[in-house]
Prior knowledge:
Blueprint: H1 2-23, E1 55-72, E2 79-80, E3 83-84, E4 94-95, E5 99-109, E6 112-121, E7 129-137, H2 146-151, E8 155-163, E9 195-205, E10 208-215, E11 232-242, E12 247-258, E13 303-315, E14 318-330, E15 338-351, E16 357-368, E17 377-391, E18 394-406, E19 418-429
Antiparallel strand pairs: 1-4, 1-5, 1-19, 2-3, 5-6, 6-7, 7-8, 8-9, 9-10, 10-11, 11-12, 12-13, 13-14, 14-15, 15-16, 16-17, 17-18, 18-19
Amino acid sequence: MKKYLLHFATTMILAGSVHLAYGQKILPNMRPYDQRGLNMFEPPKNDTATFTHLQLKIGAGFTQQFQALRHSNEATPNIVNGVDQNKLITIGNGFNLATANLNLDATLADGIELNVITYLSSRHHNDTWVKGGYLQIDKLSFLHNQTIDHLMNNVRFRVGDFEINYGDAHFRRTDNGQAIQNPFVGNYIMDAFMTAISGEAYVMSKGWIGMIGVAGSQVNTTVTNPSGRGPAIYGKLGFDKQLTPDFRFRLTGSIYTNRKSPGNQLYNGDRGGSRYYLVMENTQATISNNAWSGEYNPQFSNHVTSIMINPFIQYRGLVFFGTYEHAQGRTGAETSNRKADQLVGDLLYYFGPKQNIYLGVRYDWVKGELPGISQAVNIDRVQAALGWYIAPTVLLKAEYVNQRYHDYPTNNINYGGQFHGLMLEGTVGF
C-alpha cells in the first residue's frame, strides 16, 4: 500500500509541476534535460548569475519503446537439467516497460547547486529508488575573499554520489527515462557508465577543460574488506570552442583506473538496463534479471584501467561524434590482465526550421577477451535513426539496428549470433 501511495503522490507532484519546471529558466551552471542540453557536455560556468533566493526546478524524463526485433544463433546445444541453455527465448513485436526519472535541481546559495535524480521505474528495478545526486560549487562567496573569488571564476567542485564524468559518451547516452539527448535508441555495446561516491575538481578557461576525480569503485559501498578495495582515480583533459558561428570543435581524452576492488562496476553500473529487451538471451531469461541484453561486459571487476578519446565536430546541422576506448583489467580470480577495445562513430544531420529533425547513423565495434574463452571475440553494430523534436521537450525517434557476434566458441550462446530490426521510441524530458 505504501508503494502505491508513493507512486500516486509522485504522479501528482509531476502533474502539478510541469508548468513550473519548464517555465523556469535554466538554473545557472546546470545542464538542461530537454533539447537545449543536446550537444552539451560539462555545463559552462555562469558567474554572472546573482542569487536572491532558493530556486527549485522539478522535472522528469519519460520514455516508451515499441520493439520489433528478431534474433538468431548457431550455438551447439548445452543441456542442463533437461533445458538447452543455448536456445534463444522467443521474442516478437511489442511494447517495452515504460521508464521514468524524477529530476530535482536547486540553487541553494550563490554559486552552489544541488542535483538529485530518482528512477521511478526501470527495467532492472520496478520500484522507485534514487540514482544519485551531487552538490556543485561554482562560487565560494561565503568566504569573502577576493583572491578565492577570482580563482573560482575558472574552478568548479562537485561532490556526492553521482554519475562520474569519465569520457564524453555518457553525456549522449540514454539514462533510464532520460533519452531526449540520445539521437539513437540503444547505448554503446561496451557501456562505460557508473554512479559512485565521488569528488571532482574542474578548471575551465578559454575553451580548455581539465578535471580530476576520486571515487569509490562500486555502486553499493561498504566498510568491510578494507584490504580488498581501493579508490578509483580518473581525469579528463580537453578543448571545446565555437571557432566560428558555424563551426564548433571539441576533443577530450579521459582516463579511469582502479587497482583493487571486490566488484568494480565501470562497465556494468547501469542500473536501468539496455533498450533491446531479451535479445540473445536464453529461454529462462527475465526482463529484470537479464537487464543488459545486447551489451558486452569485459568483466574487469577487480582491476581496470581505461582510456577514452572523444572528438566532436559540428558544422551547422552536421554533427560527428566519435569514441575510441581501450581498457584492460581482470577479475579477482585472474592473475594477468585482459584487453578490450571499442571504436564508435556517430554522423548526424539536423535540419528543419529549428533543426528539430535529424537523420543519423552509428557504427559500433568492440573486440575483447573474456574469462574462459581462449581467443578474443568481437561484436559489431549498425544503427540508423530518424528523429523529430515535436517540441524542445518531446522527441520521437525510429531506429533500425543490426548487431552481429563473431569468434565466440561453438558452445557459447552468442556463437553465430545476430539480432536486427526496428525500434520506435517516444521520450519526454524537462
